[in-house]
Design a protein that fits this description.
CATH architecture: 3-Layer(aba) Sandwich
Strand order of the largest sheet: 5-4-3-6-7-8
Largest sheet: 6 strands, parallel
Helix content: 40-55%
Strand content: 15-25%
Distance between the termini: 39 Å
Shape: globular
Number of domains: 1
CATH topology: Rossmann fold
Oligomer: single chain
Structural class: alpha/beta
CATH class: Alpha Beta
């Protein structure tokens, strides 16, 4: 399979191939799921994007190849299936972009080590990051992933701006804090 686009008769551009490894992907709404979908959509315009995610029925994005690993399987089988899917996807990849979570960090570390594919790491799931601080094994995996990565993204923008409608009788401050407090990172 050729990974080139021909824009002119004599000029060929080689597309960069990126694998995004994530524990959450839409239709899930928690954590980085909407961000990953939007990132893949934007990158797919001039990059070959493959997403490896724990999902059952992932939302499709035009121009993006999505590999879903069923998260209802027992943990050892799920990790092995994710590792195998990630290894296949990263075989010809130029980079792996991984979102934190112990279920992603272990397979990503193994695949990036053996394939020598550059790893970039993102802390998109704050809940998983806080959980990793409390468990020694998860903290160890996260620290190794940080050390192995060539770059790290720790702040994620919201996928689209949020606007809150104010009702009469509520101050802006109370309404704003109430809505922001409902969304967990």
């Amino acid at each position: 399979m050729a990974h080139t686009k021909s824009y002119h008769k004599h000029v060929r551009f080689v597309l960069m191939r990126i694998v995004i490894a994530t524990p959450l992907y839409p239709p899930e709404i928690a954590g980085p799921a909407p961000y990953i979908k939007e990132l893949a959509r934007r990158l797919s315009k001039d990059t070959e994007v493959t997403i490896v995610a724990y999902a059952r029925l992932p939302e499709q994005v035009p121009g993006v190849h999505i590999i879903a690993v069923d998260k209802r399987r027992p943990l050892p089988l799920r990790l092995f299936a994710y590792l195998r899917a990630l290894a296949r996807a990263a075989r010809d990849a130029d980079a792996i972009y991984a979102i934190n979570g112990a279920s992603v960090e272990l397979p990503v570390l193994i695949v990036s080590f053996f394939s020598r594919t550059p790893l970039f790491f993102g802390i998109g799931d704050r809940v998983a990051h806080e959980r990793a601080k409390k468990r020694l094994l998860f903290l160890f995996l996260e620290r190794i992933a940080f050390a192995r990565s060539r770059g790290m993204i720790s702040k994620f923008p919201w996928p689209r701006p949020k606007s809150f409608r104010l009702s009469r009788g509520h101050s802006k401050r109370k309404r704003s804090m109430k809505n922001h407090g409902a969304r967990t990172l």
